[in-house]
Design goal:
Layout lengths: L6 H12 L4 H8 L3 H14 L18 H13 L5 H12 L5 H10 L8
Helix pairs in contact: 1-3, 2-3, 4-5
């Protein structure tokens, strides 16, 4: 997984470039790669900020929204003895979204529900 640099360090790259340092000098001064320096400078030139504002959130795209996850949590609290396939059918009725059992399981895990106890 690539290393994530802080916003402060990214701004330091821009400041050093404005003080007429080239990419190689900035790279040696801040101990980061030259290609990373060039990427930060391109992002700043294009957007005026050091972090791409259109970069998506990391990780798998969630099947259910936050509101739907709250509905799922409430369903689990009310129906503790239901199996996953029964919860899945009820979620389809309430939200109108069809999902697989594994997607429902991932959503439950994301909510912090890992074991259903009777």
């Amino acid at each position: 997984m690539p290393r994530e640099y802080s916003e402060d360090l990214r701004w330091r790259v821009v400041y050093l470039e404005s003080e007429s340092y080239n990419a190689q000098e900035i790279s040696k001064t801040l101990f980061i790669g030259k290609s990373t320096v060039n990427y930060i400078l391109r992002t700043f030139a294009k957007w005026g900020c050091v972090i791409n504002p259109f970069k998506g959130a990391p990780g798998r795209k969630k099947k259910f929204s936050r509101k739907e996850l709250q509905v799922l949590q409430q369903l689990v609290k009310e129906k503790v003895d239901w199996y996953l396939d029964e919860l899945l059918v009820e979620m389809e009725n309430l939200t109108g979204k069809s999902a697989s059992v594994s997607a429902l399981w991932r959503s439950l895990h994301y909510c912090g529900i890992t074991h259903k106890k009777v």
